[in-house]
Design a protein that fits this description.
This protein has 198 residues and is an all-alpha fold. 51% of the residues lie in helices and 0% in strands. The protein is globular and about 50 Å long.
Amino acid sequence: MAACLVSHGADPNQLTKDGSSALLFAAARGDDDTCEWLLAHGANPTLTNDDGVTSLWNAVSSCRLIVVLQILRTNVDPNVRCRGIRIHSDSLEHMYDIAVCPLLRAVHLRLPSIAQALVSYGVFANAERHRNRAFDEYRVLEDWQGENLRWFNSVCSQPPNLAWWSKRCIRRHLPIHPMESVNSLNLSSAMKKYILGL
């Protein structure tokens, strides 16, 4: 359907009355095929709707790692906070009383692989945990245990290293779709993969 509409002149970034895009809805459904197609045909992953919800935030809520990675690879800001919205509910109520980051959402949903992906793409878990009171208010770590809890406590107990900061600085100056720019650099393939977070 998305391909048919765009082929007939539809704008992949057309917004609904509340500012939601097709990518935002596809991410909320965890539809990786549609997300990949939309991103390849000009969908802007940085758009937010009137509630501040981003495609990345919805991708985390869909519990689909592949969709989260598709959006992270476009170099979006992984730290955008919002209260979330239940778009499949008639009441469209907020999920949280205060704005929370995608990392908190991933931890709250007990999604260690998604939490690890967010950290690898530049989320400073230490800062998020200690400056966002929602980690305590919503008791998001209560159900975490074993290796996953040890990993989270570890990334929250020490500041990022120089390599992390360097990668973050580089990514902040890349375009929304950074693949071509990075591939054109005179760097080793290992460094290119590191910058892109692959």
